[in-house]
Amino acid sequence: MPSTTSNSAPLSKRLFVFDFDWTLIDTDSDHWVFEHLSEELYQVQLDVVGKVQWTDLQQRLLGELYDRGVSKEDIERTLSQVPFAPEMIEALRLMKSHGAELYILSDANTVYIETALKAHNIDQLFTRIITNPAVFDERGRLNVVRYHGLDKEPHNCPLPCQPNICKGLEIQKLIDAQSWEQVVYMGDSTNDFCPSTRLQSKDVVLARRSLLLEKEIRENPQLIKANVIYWDNAKDVLKATQSILGSTSTVLTPPTFSKPSEPLSPVESSDLKARRAQAIRA
Ligand SMILES: [Mg+2]
Ligand SMILES: [Zn+2]
């Protein structure tokens, strides 16, 4: 629940929190790196999904990538080529220009996200990136560890969260830190459901259409209090952003987006890839 303060309340702002893979970008960064730098390790990644914890798997595969001679520069160059839709960047800039605070809450890692954001000159838009910590060692080998480490007690979230991060716990800390005018969470996958349940009736979930977050919401509607706006692509996100920022009251009319006056763009082929990438990670 939002905390109340007895002192003069700080100027209320909107809080926007984003998943990264298949939400801000139209790919999965963990796949992107291996897809472009080692077809063989990419295949290993696909083959062992579900058998090994995902962050631990990335750590092991990054060691093998280093052993094959792939350098820090190779990884950084590949990440700087991660696709970022212009309308998504426009939406982020619009949020920031309206005084909102922007956070990323992701199961990728700090190096992947920061490198991709810097390549598009949008890293300064975000207050903080909450994700698995990663760092290159002096040899240029990238190391990534779990955000919720093995040294901590398990988070024991009853919702479908991975052991290395419960996004619900993390967004709750952000929600409780300030008296927000409105909270918006944007995601696509199963692990985006838990943070979506933390939002209140004045808040908005921007759920990518036809993917696993939508499935969770439709199967467990009683757990969602916020307005849900479904989106297919960055153009939809930009329209939704304009609507959210333009609304002065806390009441939104999400049906505008469920039944747009102009037809939405055809489902992009990337959605098929998204479904495949999600299916193998779920
Ligand atoms: Mg995602
Ligand atoms: Zn959780």
UniProtKB/TrEMBL annotation:
A Pfam family recorded for this sequence: Put_Phosphatase
Matching entries from InterPro entries are given as: HAD-like_sf (IPR036412), HAD_hydro_PyrdxlP_Pase-like (IPR006384), HAD_sf (IPR023214), Pase_PHOSPHO-typ (IPR016965)
Q: Which SUPFAM superfamilies match?
A: HAD-like (SSF56784)
Q: Which residues form the active site?
A: 19, 21
**Gene Ontology molecular function:** metal ion binding; phosphatase activity
Q: What cofactors does the UniProt entry give for this protein?
A: Mg(2+)
Renumbered to this chain, region (Disordered) spans: 251-282
Q: Which domain of life is it from?
A: Eukaryota
Q: Where does Mg(2+) bind?
A: 19, 21, 188
- List residues binding substrate: 30, 107
Which keywords are on file for this protein?
Answer: Hydrolase, Magnesium, Metal-binding
NCBIfam families the UniProt entry points to: DKMTPPase-SF, HAD-SF-IB
Quote the protein name from its UniProt record: Uncharacterized protein
- What species was this sequence derived from? Modicella reniformis
Organism classification, top ranks?
Answer: Eukaryota, Fungi, Fungi incertae sedis, Mucoromycota, Mortierellomycotina
